[in-house]
Amino acid sequence: MFTEAQVAEYTAGLYKRRYTGVRVRSFRVICADWQPRPNYCHTNVTEFCQRNSDYTPVRGWLYFDYCEALDYVKFLAHSVIRTPDAELTDITPSNRERPDPYPFIEALLTDEDFYAMLEHTEEENLVYYTRQRNSA
Fold first, then answer.
1. Of 15, 86, 105, 114, which has the fewest beta carbons less than 10 angstroms from its beta carbon?
2. What sign does the dihedral 47-50-51-55 (CA atoms) show?
3. What are 12-41's pLDDT values in tens digits?
4. What is the C-alpha separation between 80 and 84, in angstroms, rounded?
């Protein structure tokens, strides 16, 4: 279990690592007996990787900085796959066009810790970090 202080510390660490985020390519999966569903990225990735043992689930966070217009940033929990060639790929269909996907930052947690962290998020699958503004 994570305490509120541990979640805050982890979120501050995510913010420090925000420049490590990568824009993950989307890939449409077509299978005869299964299709990934929108808004079920964690389940989709787990199912896909169970069916395709050469692929690895990667848990992490999409980073929203709002072009620095707000005093906070948002991290949305997300899961993608790592291909055998070590490329990150997003297999979860989106209901919106994403010409420029949000940066994805790897969680660097075990699956168990990642899901435990999600139990302590402020909103479902979301954590916020308030930017430290320089005083003028």
1. 86
2. positive
3. 999 999 999 999 999 899 888 999 999 999
4. 13
Burial of 10 (0-12, 13-18, 19+ CB in 10 A): buried
Alpha helices, DSSP H, located in the chain:
4-16, 41-51, 111-118
Phi and psi of 45, rounded to 5°? -65, -45
111 with 56: CB under 8 angstroms? no
CA distance 117 to 10: 9
What is the amino acid identity at position 93? P
pTM of the full predicted structure? 0.90
Alpha carbons 67 and 127: distance in angstroms, whole number: 18
Q: Let me know: does 43 contact 1? Beta carbons within 8 Å.
A: no
Q: How many CA atoms lie within 13 A of 35 on its CB side?
A: 7
Segment 51-82, tens digit of pLDDT: 999 999 999 999 999 888 888 899 999 999 99
